[in-house]
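User: Fold this, then the next.

Assistant: Folding the first:
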Amino acid sequence: MAKIKHNNFLDTVHEVFTDAKEAGIMHLYAEGETFTGRTIGVKNQQLFHFGTTGYLGLEQDTRLKAAAIEAIKKYGTQFPLSKSYISNPLYKALEEKVTAMYQNPIIITKNSTLGHMGVIPNAVNDRDAIILDHQVHWSVQSAAKVLKNRSVPIDMIRHNDLNMLEDKIKSLSDSRKKIWYMADGIYSMYGDFSPVQDLKTLALKYPQLHLYIDDVHGMSWIGKNGTGYALSELGDLSENVLLFGTLSKTFGASGAVLVCSNKKMYQEIKTFGGPLTFSAQLEPASVAAAIASADIHLSPEIYELQNDLRTRVHYFNALLEQTNLPLIEKNISPVFFIGTGMPKTGYNFVNRLMKEGFYVNLGIFPAVPVKNTGVRITISRHNQKKEIKALVEAMVYHFSKALEATWTNAQRIYHAFKMDVKESKEINVQQNLSIQLEDSILKVEKNIWNTCVGKQGVFDWEGLKFLEETFKENMLKEHNWRFWYLIIYDQNQSPILATFFTLGLWKDDMLTDVSASQAIEYQRKTNPYYLTSEVLSMGTLFTEGKHLYVNDAHPIKQEALNAMMESIESLEREHHAKMVVLRDFAAKNPLHHYFQGQGFVRVQMPDSCKINLDTNETIEAYCNKLSSRNRQHLRKEIQAFESVLQIEILQTISAEAQIQVKQLYNNVHQNNLGLNTFSFPDKLFEAMSNHPNWEFITIRIRETPNFIIGVMLCYKNGTHTYVPAFVGMDYDYLTKYYTYRQLLYQTIKRAVFLNFRQIDLGMTASFEKRKLGAVVEERFAYIQTSDNYTLELMGILEGHR
């Protein structure tokens, strides 16, 4: 299989957000002439507000409002000067009060995103390294990526995995001066904590370790003077820690704050901090509101507010304990996450709660893995106990209704979040269906398979029998695949759906760009299975084409699709697959919204190329249909060299030729990290030579006919489709004899001679194939992962030098 294009991440996010927007739960506009914080106007309704990040409700405090109004009267709506030149008159007071809160030097920033962009490139030296928690906020990751241009190593660990962190510290300790670990204090989706005490212990063990903690969600509602969770755990702020807090969210105003006890680093950042220097400063109203909030934080009142919120959080926790709702993380933070698993269930649940009178947020990709979608609920001092109780009652009622409406059950959610499975009402999606799931094509009726699926690629019945025999009992684990064949019938035993899956070891970077693969392959020199995972894939790494047959006109097609999803999830759990991939779909895929709703994200693959041939076509007639420009290309760069080349069609090849063919294939495989898969087993080429459906188109130079300079490995799928599955070349002769173009042309000639109706030219090199008349079509895959770690790690590694 060719590499999936990875530069479409933003397109993927756009599709997910668009889906949620169309479901009516994102990109909404609040309504109303006033706003109290307790309720919010949405779609002509006043909803109880359980989505705020103003946990203490200070954004509605009359003292902050009055201060902001007075500042506008005195100083205007903004102070349009760079803070590097002069700060507005209120800044000094704010800096003094926030310094008093933290008892350490501070720097006020416009917001936390700009703050990270200003601080990280200053704090991290070219001799340092960065390790990111894979759930650290996007703004931190984005700022860290800038340092790839300075060749600063950036790596990532799984969420809160300190054993993994320690291993990476050890691997970097000999080559790097400082090792920065970047994490959140409180994580914004699940409301879970960073293990700050353990990190502090690890920093004592490894003096090179420095901590960079974004604690904007831990601010105000906990800690001395409301300085947040991280500082409450750290106690004193040592020089190896940089801490970010916020003046917005719970603080009630705007802006962010960096706390730094290292005087030298503090002066360097404050003197020149990129966006901190060139961005506009906070507006006078924001500064004044922040001063009023700081006064509250410096008074005993802050502890009264914290206790008031804590009472509400404890009450909500106690109510949830009496339910079977899948609460993903239980702790004392005001952030809660109720898992729904599939996005479509999340959409349904949120819409039901809004109709019932409650506003909540949906946690969705990329903030969480797609199949870890859920409802994010925040508790604030605005929320009264009676509406907190009413929310829990509404969730208990509508959660089961949302499951039923989306043909799922709680067990799927428990599995998705790796929680202990509780008893739940099962939704039977198999009514009126007969499901056949086999582990060998030998157990599947040949005619049914070939009629539904097997008229293309190397996955007719005979082709799959060949693949099963080739990819078993091999020495290397990546050369051993497991196969499953799924056919779903109606009551009359008529197939509604048919497809097949393989479980095999994939390189994780197969889905990313060449720069990431280069960095990872360097690691694989000593650890060949570095960043590899067991993947459950529709089709195989050997096949391309339409792997899924669905009778779109069948009245219970939906039930068949749901049954397929349950089969996939069962196989995934039983065999511990880390990723599920549904492959080779057209751009206008009628199942697109269904797959997204089931927790898959769409990524673009290389374009697919095919040629349709007329009955009794001749090669002359075919070439005459090419454009004049392409005919000229054909004459000058392909046909002109036929006389000096020895071109043969071989049904079998000698042992010596097999060695040459294998080497030629390896040349192509190794030369293209854009196709970064494991190689195929050695016995493949002998098996091809012994199989009646395979043949070899070989090219030699007539003057030196002892060795092959190019080969196309072709499969004959019945009498319908000719499949040039793989190519091998000697690159020393590629440009002199246009070897690849010659192989393509000879493939077309062979298919025409055999009177095939279609040539599946596969993916990649679409520019070359188009010149010879191929129809080029976009192809997409749908991917579902158990977490976002690999996806985010690949994003970090891309562009590494």
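Now the next one, as you asked:
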Amino acid sequence: MEINASDDLLPNVTLGFILYDSCYNEVRSLTGTAWILSGTKNGVPSFSCKEGNMPLAIIGDMPSKASIPIARILGLYRYPQVSYASATPLLSDKTQFPSFLRTIHNSYYEGFIIADLLKYFNWTWVGIIVSDNDLGRTGLQIVTREYEKNGGCIAFQEILPIFSSMKSVLRIVDVVKKSKATVVVLFCTTENLVSLMELASFHNITDKVWVATPGWSITSDFPRRDILTTLNGSLGLANQNGKIPGFKEFLYSIHPSISTNDPYMKTFWENVFHCIWPGNDAVNNTSPALLKEDIVWCTGEERLDSIDPNIYDVYNFKYTYRTHNAVFAVAHALHQMKNCVPGKGPFKNGSCADIYNHRPWQLLHYLKRVDFKNTAGERIFFNENGDVPVSVDILNWQLFPNGSNQYVSIGSIDTGAPKGKVFRIQLKEILWNTGNSQVPVSVCSDPCPKGYRRAALQGQKICCFDCLPCSEGEILNPNDDSECLKCPEDKWPDSRKEECLPKLIQFLSYEETLGSALACISVLFCLLTFLVFCLFIIKQKTPIVKANNRELSYLLLISLIFGFLCPLAFIGRPNRIMCMIRQVMFAVIFSLCVSTILAKTITVIMIFSATNPNSKMNTLVGFRIPVCIVPVCTVIQIILCIVWLAQAAPFAEFNMAAEIGIIVIECNEGSRVLFASVLGYMGLLASVSLFVAFMARKLPDTFNETKFITFSMLVFASVWVTFIPAYLSTKGKQTVAVEIFAILSSSAGLLVCVFFPKCYIILLHPEMNSREYITRRNARSQET
């Protein structure tokens, strides 16, 4: 009616139609085709009894199983066929079906869509049930290939026989019930699926999400509440709703009194409003005695807009929209044929076809090339296989407490849409079978925690795995969660082992408690030593200061002052200059200290020898040996240090392995041999000093100098002997702290043992620090 009333499309041309119902039956489809082609009810192959009234094209059929035999026959004559619902991929083969076109998408792409849908919801463990036909086998092949390419795994795959037996259906239901997979994909026809859904509902399988193909996603063949409960929350693909302007108003305006010649109108009205239309022959011919007293007669005032849209849907034009497009495609093809200019036509010698008398293949030529916008403004065209772009809605089955159900559109897929708008889903609109909006989980193994990698289980699919932690210093590969990557040397994994972060740089600094505490102790001992030095300067003429060579005492105090300042070079960020200075300073200063103590000890020995006329060392007193010991021993150490610095000087380095996750900036000693030589020489001096002091410990001395020196060298040796294992057992900045502690401890031992007894006498017992006291003491010792 819309085309016939148009002034732009086929003006002055009236189109009609012949309606034939194949009832989902291949045999009736073939019978109807033979009737249309031959013009007779019985059908005569290769003959047309009503050639002048031959239909120009066939719109249909709906099921693929019916369209396939029709298309095989029509293809022999190149007779145009446009289906509005047959989606099987086989019909895109133009070698077998050269005259078949369709306004519905090719179901071949449904497998890709479902694979993308499963990936979108992160369902990696699903089951698949397919019908034992082309639809099922093709869908199974595509979904399996694309799904596994996306990292998913098939938990089970079952084939539902076309003629289902109770035994096979029971077995499939048992597999579904026992499977850990929460999601089940169904590539099935409606007639195959009814028995499966009945048994699934009987076994109360309500914890599964069923993913439906367009073949049954909006079927009305599941009216029972128990089946709807089983399907509640499931997802389905459905042919996208189309818009037909004015069609809703048209559906609401139909009425039996207007469409008097429509044989279905009165029946429709009676079924919808549960009444009997006046004039119904079946009722009028019935005996009045047999008529029910409570019979309801239709008044004609019933309103179609009062009917529940689930019963009389005037909004969702899925197959209606595609039928509308199919009819308009034929009309546009005829319009192009009508407007053909002789001499510029597409056929031999530029000829045109006569719209009233043309061959089927001529209309097919125009039909394949139509490209127009329908009444809703959407572009309609066919590709080289006679298919249209894929455009499907994603539906969610929702069951309400009152028993009613609804298919809610939660998204769409349109391959003809601009890039980035092909795939659209509104998660908030979905109501799952759990009753909430949280997406169900369908996995074989739960995802591994952060910092754990997947470890495949032998004999299992890749979706079933154990979780093993990444090793120290490794993060999970962001592109492959089955392996870990080692961080670069200067980086370390974060707490979740997701990212390599720069390692913390560590050294003993003044800002931290340990560094500042050691620095304070060092300065305090330095000041204390300086005070002792000042005290000795003030009391320089007293016997206790003059005893055992006061110049050596001054030199020892000055070297101890620098020894206490030495740890300050060990605190702070190491660099090449500081690494060279601190070890050399430490070696030279302590060599000076020990050589001074050695000189003091030898001085005591020589003084005692001078008082003994029988001593063999009298001849050495005049050589001033103690004065020579200090510079000679110190110069030897200085020469060793110069050679060390010249050959392989210490330098700062980044130690990546000292502590986990930390870069320790420390001093590399350069040549370990030369460093050991420097330390070994200092140890040799200390050993000689200890030995000489120990041998002279019993010599008579007014102030017990040799005993104090012996004890100080014992403390010095003990500190550095215990330093070695402590130094080797520590890492990072604690190593430097141990060395500083050893320096401070040994220096403090020398200060306390050598000088504190003298300070005690000077400050607290000044009477002992006099010539008279020493004279009386010596006299008593001689009398004894």
